[in-house]
Amino acid sequence: MDDENLRILLVARPAGGGMLRHLANLLSGLDGRAFTCYVAAPCEVLQGLGLSARDSRRVRIRDRAGAADPPAALTLSSIVRSYRPHVVHAHGYRAAWVCFLAGILTPLPPLVVTVHNLFPTDIERLASIGARMALGRAHTVIAITRAVAESLSNAGVKMQRLRIIPNGIQIPVPKHNREEVRSTLGIAPQAPVAIVVARLMEDKGVAGAIKAHTVLRQRAPNSVLLIAGDGPDRDALELLAEELGVKDSVLFLGYRDDVPDLLAASDVCIIPSVFEGQSLVALEAMALGIPVVATSVGGLAEVVQHDKTGLLVDPTDHTALADAAFSLIQNKERAAQLAEAGRNHVLSFYTRDIMVSKVAEVYRSAAL
Q1: 272: which residues sit within 8 A by CB, 6+ positions away?
Q2: Full-model pTM
Q3: CB under 8 Å to 159, separation ≥6 — which residues?
Q4: Model confidence over 233-261: pLDDT tens digits?
Q5: For the structural domain made of 3-170+351-367, what CATH number should be given?
Q6: How far apart are CA 332 and CA 310, in angstroms?
């Protein structure tokens, strides 16, 4: 079947951060091809993707249910009957579960599921069984890293149905130069600046970055830590910075839509996660030629190859995080070497077009 005749239904439940940005990158990349795509998701996801109420690709599924999501499944089964997609593509475990339930009500076309995080080991047994059942329904399960694929295989997903397709990004372009951004933020031109871009929640390890900053300040007293993002832990993190005596050098910027500008104004990007499938922020920083220090968790080690495309540290060792950041601030030649290698790595393996081409292959295979 020709691509222009293939109808793809993308399904998402409430999503933010990396998953929402992945969806946006995928949708924009598919728009440049011949597929006809629709997105079935809650209103806030549709808005986050920039799909207006009049956009023909927009199909709303209300988010008013608990984890079982029977109303969403009922709505999705009706959507499938109306739009008659050739492939349904669910993003995340919850969306896969909704598709599984909908398939009980209405025969579904081939199901593709993209999994963005390691298979959870700390969930209730019933939820674990549900996730396995949902993934078992899929024609293809896309894992964004080898680490995610291994966790899915250990959970019982057959290897022949697994496909590793890393997240891909559009290469970011800053709108303002380093000096302008620093001036706006009140940061001295020569001050060492580290940045964390993350949702402020426990999994992202931002507390560890703040603790590392206290160590870094002992060696570079004029250093600044930028924290771009918001979330449920913001108040606690601001209190931590105050208790550690670094509140004046830690700038909580909240949600920002100018992340490329902030990255370009920084000397090092820190990814302090304690749990991570991959990291779009790491990819964007590397694409901009900003050296990255990351924790060795999940799929981060596949993106940030230690001492080749960046530096990796133990997620529990904030002193090691400070040491790594300081080494890049102090040794600018080494930082530039890692940054250049990181940029080449992203351009070779992690662009949006590479990702979309591989996903399109999955669609064609599933629709046969």
Answers
A1: 196, 198, 204, 205, 206, 208, 209, 212, 294, 295, 315, 321
A2: 0.89
A3: 153
A4: 999 999 999 999 999 999 999 999 999 99
A5: 3.40.50.2000
A6: 13
